[in-house]
Q: What sequence folds into this?
């Protein structure tokens, strides 16, 4: 056992000396592996971060939450021309569902509008996602209020000119002042701030901290019932313990009856479940991971070829030394480990440098995008990068190392001379 440890130690020392004596060649070899490991781990970390941010943004919603809309959240076999002719999901659909569909814990009507400009005195914030939605969204998305309150059912039904803002939006508009009771201008109209949401952090797309919420009926009063080409949806949260499959069938039957669809006519709406959206996101993330592996794998392959090439050159240059070592009694395994260690050290150091660059990139990314997106370099990805670089070193160095260990000492000395 001690003999093998001594062989390992001496082989490792020879490998380090060889790398120190050829600094430029070592640097070029490191560069190839560094680029390869950086490419793979950066892509995997970016995809993992995207997946984590999306899942966190959906975590406040019950997985059984349903969105009734003319649009599908995922792939569908319904042709585009037919989907374009579907009627818009409107407030009448929402009222009918709320009164006639059983086993509903909460339901809300939302209008997916565009970005708006919010003004308070001299302060202006552009590109704000102002979401017109009925008050039940407070129960469905489990909002947390930091100051004030959310608008009531009466304010929602009557379309009161009130607004609830996210924490970042409140800070940008009012700085350190208390926002409650202040009047802001949205849609060219005055609205009173009655609540500020508790800071959430990351979100899907734009963060909830940058959004604002107004009663959907407020917008419906001056935007043709709230439509004007803007898509609407009914958000439904079934009661806990309800049979989701049966609930979905009842919901479809009720809507079909309300819209007067005949038995032989197809649905003119989509019932989208959050669970289905999560599965769809998982499929996209899996595809992105695969594409990232394929693209980045070529970079890592080039790095592996670079190490193999350098190792063959190293064997060629040190043929005379190998012959002398073997003539003095060095075993084949000593020569094998010597070159194998050299390849592995090159790959591992290159991989660690690549991981360092990914870590620096993650810090820069988090500093640039702030709370809207959290770029995470997980321990799993770091360990994967380390193991990949070690594996590349072994694969790239094994053939040159074997060829070096099998050299005949006499022929090696003669060739070197």
A:
């Amino acid at each position: 056992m001690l003999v093998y440890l001594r062989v390992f130690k001496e082989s490792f020392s020879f490998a380090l000396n060889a790398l120190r004596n050829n600094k430029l060649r070592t640097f070029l070899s490191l560069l190839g592996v560094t680029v390869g490991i950086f490419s793979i781990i950066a892509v995997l970390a970016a995809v993992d971060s995207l997946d984590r941010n999306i899942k966190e943004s959906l975590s406040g919603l019950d997985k059984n939450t349903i969105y009734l809309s003319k649009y599908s959240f995922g792939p569908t076999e319904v042709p585009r021309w037919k989907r374009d002719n579907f009627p818009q999901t409107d407030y009448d659909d929402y009222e009918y569902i709320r009164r006639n569909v059983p086993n509903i814990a909460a339901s809300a009507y939302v209008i997916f509008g565009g970005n708006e400009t919010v003004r308070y005195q001299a302060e202006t914030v552009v590109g704000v996602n102002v979401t017109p939605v009925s008050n039940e969204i407070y129960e469905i998305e489990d909002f947390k209020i930091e100051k004030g309150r959310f608008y009531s059912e009466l304010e929602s039904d009557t379309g009161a000119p009130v607004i609830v803002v996210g924490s970042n939006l409140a800070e940008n508009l009012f700085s350190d002042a208390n926002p409650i009771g202040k009047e802001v201008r949205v849609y060219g109209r005055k609205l009173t701030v009655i609540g500020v949401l508790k800071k959430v952090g990351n979100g899907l797309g734009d963060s909830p901290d940058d959004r604002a919420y107004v009663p959907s009926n407020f917008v419906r009063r001056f935007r043709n019932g709230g439509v004007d080409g803007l898509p609407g949806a009914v958000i439904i949260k079934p009661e806990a313990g309800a049979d989701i499959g049966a609930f979905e069938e009842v919901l479809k039957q009720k809507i079909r009856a309300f819209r007067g669809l005949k038995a032989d006519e197809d649905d003119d709406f989509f019932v989208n479940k959050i669970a289905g959206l999560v599965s769809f996101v998982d499929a996209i993330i899996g595809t992105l991971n695969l594409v990232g592996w394929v693209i980045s794998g070529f970079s890592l392959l080039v790095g592996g070829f670079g190490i193999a090439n350098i190792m063959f050159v190293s064997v060629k240059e040190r043929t005379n030394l190998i012959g002398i070592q073997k003539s003095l009694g060095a075993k084949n395994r000593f020569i094998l480990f010597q070159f194998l260690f050299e390849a592995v050290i090159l790959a591992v150091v290159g991989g660690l440098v690549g991981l360092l660059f990914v870590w620096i990139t993650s810090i820069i990314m988090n500093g640039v995008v702030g709370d809207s997106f959290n770029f995470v370099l997980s321990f799993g990805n770091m360990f994967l990068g380390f193991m990949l670089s070690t594996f590349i070193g072994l694969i790239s160095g094994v053939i040159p190392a074997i060829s070096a260990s099998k050299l005949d000492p006499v022929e090696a000395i003669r060739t070197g001379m």
Q: What stands out?
A: The chain has two domains: 2-58+280-416, 87-268. The chain has a mean pLDDT of 78.
